[in-house]
Amino acid sequence: MPQPHSPSFLLCQQHYSFSFQQHSQTLTPPSPFTFPDNHQHDHLLSLLSKQRATHSSFSPRHDVVRWISTVSDFHAFAPLTTVLAVNYFDRFVTTLRFQSEQKPWMTHLAALACVSLAAKVEETRVPLLFDFQVGESKFLFEAKTIQKMELLVLSTLEWKMNPVTPISFFQHFLARLGLKRHLHSEFLCRCQRLLLSVIADSRVMSYLPSTLAAAIMIHIIKEIEPLNATEYQNQLPGLLKTSEEQVNECYKLILGLYVCSNGIHNLRRKRLSEPSSSPDGVIDASFSCDSSNDSWTVASPSVEPVFKRRKPQDQQMRLPSVNRVVIDVLNTPR
Amino acid sequence: MEKPGGGGVLSAKEAFEKLEKVGEGTYGKVYRAREKATGKIVALKKTRLHEDEEGVPPTTLREVSILRMLSRDPHVVRLMDVKQGQNKEGKTVLYLVFEYMDTDLKKFIRSFRQTGQTVPPQTIKSLMYQLCKGVAFCHGHGILHRDLKPHNLLMDPKTMMLKIADLGLARAFTVPIKKYTHEILTLWYRAPEVLLGATHYSMAVDIWSVGCIFAELVTKQALFPGDSELQQLLHIFRLLGTPNEDVWPGVSKLMNWHEYPQWNPQSLSTAVPSLDELGLDLLSQMLKYEPSKRISAKKAMEHAYFDDLDKRHL
């Protein structure tokens, strides 16, 4: 790999530019910047150009994100699975804009379908659909109902299920910052935990993934390498082709959230033994309804056995929640 | 691509006329069909969704979502639409509508084997370049194919255009590469790190497959035709030598590592005698034991082996 400031590095450098929207400016990196391999460079260009297409911001949906986090914790999903599920949910509800107050079960069903889809995209072992229904949810859905909602989510999102997320950027920036090798995994781990702790706040999610990633990394760098923090901080906006102002604004917001509450995850994954906070599974936000979702109707409790294909000990664990409403969805839009 | 899932007004049955069954996969059949409105020939991949089971299969979900990212590349098969319908029993069925390609590399190689002809060196070079280009495009977008084999490489025999297909096992990868399932990839094209139980693997698994395909194009025979995971490893070790910590640091710590018979590495020219020196050099870089030392698809495209190839239309 060419060394920074070596002639070969500088020769390479003159051709090294990002095309992000209309911008095409040459990048002149500070000294700790290491030249990435071709593959990583291509991948980063691809991420920067795609992030707007699969990014969405959406008004308060705190409870849903809390519930998604509970499910992810329960099944020990990767952080990316949680982030994908939230991304799908945000994009889905902003596209459909259904009325959550009138149909809280539908919001919960959408969240459930989003977690299921995220797990299928990202996890190597996917739980049964029934097993996603953890926490103190008011509703219990049959597999066929969840399947219908999965298909509705997929068609609404046009099957674009590999969006650019802040996690996409952490490693790419890390490779370019020249952070000490032994700190890499700790650094990534902390970045992901901080992301999970702020993801429930819709203000944070209104920033582009690359901006949010940079703001999170600045926060973590200040914890891990306080002496070099300023130097690293100055590099990040240049890597992003984004305004320093946006990154700083996002950073301040994260700092405020971090100080106030330490987030859902308290910056560490909850152990399974800890009781999880129980979301209502209903969004507080109101939606203007202009779609034909009135064809989604609630049927009387279904006769499908609640504990289908579950081990006896699991059934006993779940008995207190049997009084939840069992919902089936009829006349699903095709 | 038309918005998938919406599928316009017409159902799959109304929009297409099935002509013949051309294959069968894990979740359903593949048909050659005619689009009634345009007369265009397409491939319909039918996926059954059993309502009492687990929703949309992960393979279908990954294949469609990945093709939504990659389908604009000329060397990746084009997904034209996704249509939702119902079968006779009223069960939900998904139809993936692909551009139709006449043949695949497996059939192409077989036709040469049956006639006793060799594949012309420039044809091999062109096909390999297109394959490297398609794989480089996938990797550049953060996608591992994980099941590259001649059967999954579609071809137009008139234009000699090659396209990567069947992304049912493909997945988006994170950097650093995280833990993935090691039960992927058809045995003959499976990289040694996967055979030895590695669950943290990378783009290099696809490059190994590309190397195996390269050799097969030249000899018209599979390079490592094992019939079990152990036999597959032994085939590899006989040609490339039994790996050790010197040639592949960390190999002895892999999950399936045992004490294997000790073989010395053979020259690749013994296995692929008709391949020229530059071709052998490229092949050797694709079949390096240590995954991080294996050539990338992008670097492979720049290899001197391809210097005399007219790349303007590829």
Automatic annotation (TrEMBL), chain A:
Keyword hit for Transcription: no
Coiled coil: none
Biological process (GO), any one: guard mother cell differentiation
CDD domains named among the record's database cross-references: CYCLIN_AtCycD-like_rpt1, CYCLIN_AtCycD-like_rpt2
Subunit architecture: Interacts with the CDC2 protein kinase to form a serine/threonine kinase holoenzyme complex also known as maturation promoting factor (MPF). The cyclin subunit imparts substrate specificity to the complex.
Name the record gives this protein: B-like cyclin
Family matches, as InterPro entries: Cyclin (IPR039361), Cyclin-like_dom (IPR013763), Cyclin-like_sf (IPR036915), Cyclin_C-dom (IPR004367), Cyclin_N (IPR006671)
Gene field: LOC100802683
Species annotation: Glycine max
From TrEMBL, chain B:
Residues of the Protein kinase domain: 16-306
Catalytic reaction(s) noted: L-threonyl-[protein] + ATP = O-phospho-L-threonyl-[protein] + ADP + H(+); L-seryl-[protein] + ATP = O-phospho-L-seryl-[protein] + ADP + H(+); [DNA-directed RNA polymerase] + ATP = phospho-[DNA-directed RNA polymerase] + ADP + H(+)
Domain of life where this protein originates: Eukaryota
GO aspect biological process, one term: G1/S transition of mitotic cell cycle
Family matches, as PROSITE patterns: PROTEIN_KINASE_ATP, PROTEIN_KINASE_DOM, PROTEIN_KINASE_ST
This protein's UniProt keywords: ATP-binding, Kinase, Nucleotide-binding, Phosphoprotein, Serine/threonine-protein kinase, Transferase
Any Pfam family: Pkinase
Annotated ATP binding sites: 45
GO cellular component: cyclin-dependent protein kinase holoenzyme complex; cytoplasm; nucleus
GO molecular function, one term: ATP binding
Key word Ribonucleoprotein present: no
UniProt record similarity statement: Belongs to the protein kinase superfamily. CMGC Ser/Thr protein kinase family. CDC2/CDKX subfamily.
Record's protein name: Protein kinase domain-containing protein
Organism: Glycine max
